[in-house]
Amino acid sequence: MATILNIETATKNCSVSIAKDGVTLVLQELNDGNYSHAEKLHPFIQQVVEEAKISFNDIDAVAVSKGPGSYTGLRIGVSAAKGLCFAFDKPLISIETLHSLAHKATVDNGVIVPMLDARRMEVYAAVYDSNYNQLREIKAEVIDENSFQEYLPEGKVYFLGDGAEKCKEVITHENAVFIDSKHPSAKEMAQLSYDKYKKNDIEDVAYFEPFYLKDFVVTPEKKR
Fold first, then answer.
1. Which of 91, 196, 208, 223 is the most interior residue, by most CB within 10 Å?
2. Are 196 and 93 in contact (CB under 8 A)?
3. What is the pTM of this model?
4. Rounded to the nearest 5 degrees, what angle is found at the Cα of 97, between the Cα atoms of 199 and 41?
5. Separation CA 61–CA 193 (nearest Å)
C-alpha cells in the first residue's frame, strides 16, 4: 500500500492530490486562467494532507509533473516536491506531463495526441495509442495543415490540451477529433505515480531537473 502526494504545475492548472494505491482520495486545484502556483501551491498541499487526515510522515512518496510545460510553473512544482522529499526523507517520482494529459482521453481505438501550448502555432505534443503506449517521442513542433498526416488517414486521432484549441482551424481532416480537456491534473497522476512507486522508479532528489524540452528564452524589454 502506498500513499502518494501528486503535484501538477506544468500549465495554468495548479493541481495537488493525495492518492492511495493509485486512487485519488483528495484533489485540490485551481485553473483561473492565471499562473497562481506561487500563491496557491503550498496552501493546496497543506489542505489535501489535512483533508486526507494524514501527516506528511504518512506519505510514502512525492510525485511531480516533470514537463514539458511552463518554465516557471515547472520550477515551482519541482522545487516544492524536492523540498518535501528532503524535509521528510521521501522518494521523488516524476511523471511526464503529456503522458498524464493523455489519460484524460478514454478511447477504444485510434491514437491520442496531447498538446500543450508553446506560443503562436507551436505546441509540445506526443502520440499515444488507445492503451497509452507512446508511439512517438515528445516534440516541440509548429502545426500546419500537414501535421499528423501519418496518423489521420489510418483512423481517429484525438487531440486534447490547451495546445489543441488553436489547431482546430488548421487540422481539418475528418478523422480529427478535438476533446474539450485543456489541462493536465494531479488526478490522472495517481495511477501513474503508483505504478512507478511499485517498480521503485524514482529520481535522484539532488540532481533531478524538469524536462523543459526547449531552452528558456528571456525577451528583452523594448526601449521606449
1. 196
2. yes
3. 0.92
4. 100
5. 9
DSSP 32: S
Q: Cell numbers 486545484 label which residue? A: 29
Query: CB neighbours of 146 closer than 8 A, spacing ≥ 6?
Result: none
Pairing label, strands 92-96, 134-142: unpaired
Interval 68-99: pLDDT, tens = 999 999 999 999 999 999 999 999 999 999 99
User: C-alpha grid cell for residue 98?
Assistant: 503529456
E strands, the chain, where?
3-8, 14-20, 23-30, 61-67, 92-96, 111-117, 122-129, 134-142, 157-160, 176-178
- Written as one string, the DSSP assignment of 88-117 is HT--EEEEEHHHHHHTT---SSSEEEEEEE
Which grid cell sits at 217?
Answer: 528564452
* Phi, psi of 89, deg, nearest 5: 55, 55
Residue 217 has pLDDT above 50, yes or no: no
